[in-house]
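Section 5.1 Outputs to date
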Amino acid sequence: MVVERLDRVDLPGSALSVVPAGVSFLAPEEAVLEAMLAGWVAQQRSRLLVASTVEQRVLVVRRFVAFSSDYPWQWSPGDVEEWTTSLVSQGLAHSTIRNYQQAVQLFCGYLTDRRYGWDEVCEQRFGTHPVQVCHEWNMAVHRSEVEARPGNRPLSREELQGFFDYCDDRVGAVHTGGRKGWLAAFRDAALFKTIYGWGLRRREAAMLELADLSGNAHAPEFGRYGAVSVRYGKAMRGSPPRRRTVLTTMGWAAEALAEWVEQIRPDYGPVGPALWPTERGGRISTDHINLRFAAYRDALGLPAELGPHCLRHSYITHLLEDGFDHLFVQQQAGHSWGATTAVYTTIGSDYKNRALRRALDRAFTCPAGQ
């Protein structure tokens, strides 16, 4: 019987490019594992995947290696099942577990693709070869369009007002007490108002710069704060960050941002273009946003499930409740599909009752003269 073999080609991430032929290693298992990961990084970068995606996947695979206490050419489907059980016991979200499984599945797919040559390397050095250990029977299924935690919801207008009042009170308390950090407290208060006022994601807000603020000729009352240019929007897989321009809809938010930019931020000194600088001249991180929001949330006694992304949910919901067109809100949020915008909303009963009343009036009110 003639066994058909695929010709080896010079692909980014091939075994030949990261494992020199005929070289012996003091710790061959560790050396080959590191070469596999380096090759996988090269293969993903050749597909123009963003660095954060590649780094996260590699980190997940390293965690799986540590959990299984085996190398990729020794893995079995049972390892995946035991790992998944461990992840579930940790209380991770369904979507998180599915993403972890997919990272391992993609890594195994890379190793078992004969064009990359890892089967030959493992056979020669260890007498075995990698197999695909993830399949339809041991992977989480994407059954629902929405996999977010149920607690991730919009804030009511009362909750939102209480949150912003607390932000302002913190600034006053720190400043009155003469304690260090009132600038940071003011920055964070303005930051949270901006996240809500323009419906931003955490990274979108953290990456803003002064040059991203501009006027809107159709809304001159907002001055230079009539629009915010988002340059680091959520990217599609394998694509660069998406850009969009978010128009200002809330005058009080524009005033809060203007006060920060024109009166308070200059006290940081020459810190570069970042809209939200740190004391050392860098820019704040998304982790800082998470931690500060959690501290304020807990102080107010709000549910622990709430996170800063709820401010974006609140923005979308409140615009719709205030009568803004659905397509306008969708474009403001940067959603490709209206269904995604609908997922973000928890429309209040007053809005729904008004919408119902308008529909009933149109349906049952006879035109004049009939």
